[in-house]
C-alpha cells in the first residue's frame, strides 16, 4: 500500500483521456495513467496502487499474462484489480481480477465502482496499520521477555552456589556441640529457609530449561526398589520439617517398570511433599503412595491440611499464579508446582489435584510404563 494518506488509482490504457476523464470524479484519489503492461510492472513496484483499472484492449503484452505476477507481490496484497472492456474478460477473470465492467460504461458509473473499491482499500490499509502496530508491540514484548529471562537466569544461576554454601555452613554450625540448645532451633529455621530458597532457585532454572526444550531426561527403568529409594531421598530433600508430620509411604510390590529420570522424579516428589508440608499443621499427615495401573505408574501425595480453594485449582500449576498465603506465613509462588507439571508432561505423563477446602489435598501424577523394547534391553543386561 502507499504510505501517504492519498489513495492511488492506476488507469492502464493506451488512451490518456480515460484517466483524465476519471480524475475529476475521484477528488480524494491520485489518478495516474499507465500506458502498457511493462510500465505497469515498473510503476506498481515504485508506487503500489490501491485500485487498478485494466483496459483489456491495451496494446503490447496482454494484461492477463502479467496480472498473476502482480498478484504474487506482497506489496500489492491490498490492491483491487478492475478489468474494463468488452473482450477478453474471461481471461482477466481467470487471471484474478476482482471485478469486471464494460468499456461502454459512463465514467461516472466507473467512478462509483472505483470509489467502492477505494473504501475497501482504505479499510485494508487501516487494518494493515493496526496489524503492523500490534506486530511491533509483540516484537518489543518478545524482546523484553528474552531480556528478562536472561536476567533471571543469570541472577538465579549466580545465587544458587552461594545459597548452597550458606546451607552447608549452617549444617556444620548446627552440629557443633558448643552451640547452645536454644540457638539450634534458630539454626534449624535458618537452614530450612535457606533450603527453601535453594529449591526455588533450582526450580526457576529447570522451568526455564524445560520451556526452552533444553531439559534432557536421563531415563532409566524404575522398579519398586528404585521408587522406594527416590521417595526416601525426596523426603530427605524436604528437610527437618517432616519430623513434625506423620509421613506414610506405601510403594506397591512388583511394579511394572516405568521409564523415568530418577533425579527429576526425586525433584517432583520433593516439591509435592514440600507443598504438603507448607499447607499442614504440626502433627499433620502426609501420605505418599505408588501404585501400578494398566498402562502407567501412579504416584499420589496426600495431606490432611487446609485444602485448596476451588477458584485456585485451574491455575495451580502456573508459575506465580499460586500466590496464596500458607499456614506458616509464607506466600507460595507456585514455581515448584509449575516445575512438577512441566517435568511430568516431559515424561509423557499427567498431573492433577483433587481437593476440598478444609479437607486436605491429593496430588496425583502418572508415568507411562516402559516400552517393550526397553524391557528387552534390560533383560539382556541382566
TrEMBL record:
Residues 154-371 form the Histidine kinase domain. It comes from the Bacteria. It is an enzyme of class 2 (transferase). The keyword Glycosyltransferase does not apply. The keyword Kinase applies. It catalyses: ATP + protein L-histidine = ADP + protein N-phospho-L-histidine. GO terms for molecular function: phosphorelay sensor kinase activity. InterPro entries: CheY-like_superfamily, HATPase_C_sf, HATPase_dom, His_kinase_dom, HisK_dim/P_dom, HisK_dim/P_sf, Sig_transdc_His_kin-like_C. Keywords: Kinase, Phosphoprotein, Transferase. Pfam families: HATPase_c, HisKA. Its EC number is 2.7.13.3. Coiled coil: none annotated. This is histidine kinase. It comes from Deinococcus arboris. The lineage of its organism: Bacteria, Thermotogati, Deinococcota, Deinococci, Deinococcales.
